[in-house]
Write a structure and sequence with these properties.
By secondary structure, the protein is α/β, with parallel strands linked by helices. The protein has one domain (2-169, 197-223, 256-266): 3-Layer(aba) Sandwich (Rossmann fold), CATH 3.40.50. The chain has helices at 13-22, 50-60, 79-100, 137-156, 171-183, 198-210, 232-240, 260-266; strands at residues 2-6, 26-31, 41-44, 64-67, 104-110, 123-124, 159-165, 168-169, 196-197, 217-221, 245-246. Strands 3-2-1-4-5-7-10 form a seven-stranded parallel β-sheet, with helices on both faces. The protein has a two-stranded parallel sheet with strand order 6-11. The chain has a two-stranded parallel sheet with strand order 8-9. Strand 4 (64-67), helix 3 and strand 5 (104-110) form a beta-alpha-beta unit.
């Protein structure tokens, strides 16, 4: 399959490109900088320019798109640009796919749409029906992009899967990240004590592209377990208190962000369950 990957030089994108190539797909990497994976065909493209987006997609003759190109959080550029670039680039990519007949699009949304950066979750495990409460320009941009995805699904028949990622890190960063969390579990509770290896993120992107039948819409994507040696429910009680309802299904160290839908629809199951006791360093 011919697959175009936007943000192919990014922290997730480079793993996605490598995984697709290893699986036998023909990949075009699109980014503002050259491809990070040697030998892959790459194009330098500004996603906010509709002409560049259309030409890149047409020239590559891609059959599917994995869209990771965006500002990956707040405080990288001013909020107006975070929101404007993310929404503008994503809409123009969806429109180019519609115009050229590319039906399958997998793209990176975020668990920040649930508002946990500012307030405890309403309930856990968080599923895709949890209320959306965007509290930053970045989260708001992702909600707008998800709404745009719904529009292109309804009006153009695209199959767009919005992957709500949480805590994705390259393997080289995970060890230090876990050590910091072990020292102070309450420092960043909005990440739900869960981390995800970028290699697993790459696999799930490929599975979502390869699946014969999918259900368009949002999918939570993160690690299967909390990385600490504590029950998830105990962590939720300690750091969120009675503000968060603990529902059935949060058993043992299972992540408070439920990925059950992704597992059911396209077989997502992490291979790298990082924890305080388990490491999976990247091979050279």
């Amino acid at each position: 399959m011919k697959v175009l990957v936007t943000g192919g030089s990014g922290r997730i994108g480079r793993y996605v490109v490598r995984d697709l190539i290893q699986a036998g797909h023909q990949v075009t990497s699109v980014d503002l900088v050259p491809a990070a994976v040697p030998g892959v065909w790459s194009l330098i493209v500004d996603l906010t320019d509709a002409g560049q987006v259309f030409q890149a997609l047409a020239h590559s003759q891609s059959e599917a798109v994995i869209h990771l190109g965006a500002w990956s959080g707040d405080h990288i550029v001013p909020p107006t640009r975070t929101y404007g670039d993310n929404v503008c680039g994503t809409f123009k990519l969806f429109q180019a796919c519609a115009d050229l007949g590319v039906r399958r699009v997998v793209w990176a949304s975020t668990h920040h749409v649930y508002g946990v950066i500012k307030a405890p979750p309403v309930y856990v495990p968080i599923d895709e029906a949890h209320p959306l409460r965007p509290a930053t320009a970045y989260a708001l941009s992702k909600v707008a992009c998800e709404q745009a995805a719904d529009y292109f699904v309804a009006q153009w028949g695209l199959e767009i899967l919005s992957l709500r990622f949480l805590g994705v890190r390259p393997p080289s960063q995970l060890d230090a990240d876990i050590k910091r969390m072990l020292q102070d579990p309450g420092s960043h509770p909005q990440l739900l004590w869960t981390r995800m290896d970028a290699r697993d993120a790459a696999t799930v992107c490929r599975l979502a592209v390869e699946a014969e039948e999918v259900e368009p819409g949002p999918y939570n994507i993160t690690g299967r377990l909390v990385v600490l040696d504590q029950d998830s429910a105990d962590l939720v009680r300690r750091y969120f208190g009675d503000q968060t309802e603990i529902r059935e299904g949060l058993i043992g160290r299972l992540s408070p962000l439920s990925c059950a839908r992704a597992e059911k629809v396209f077989g997502y199951r992490p291979q790298y369950d990082w924890s305080v006791y388990q490491r999976y360093p990247e091979e050279d």
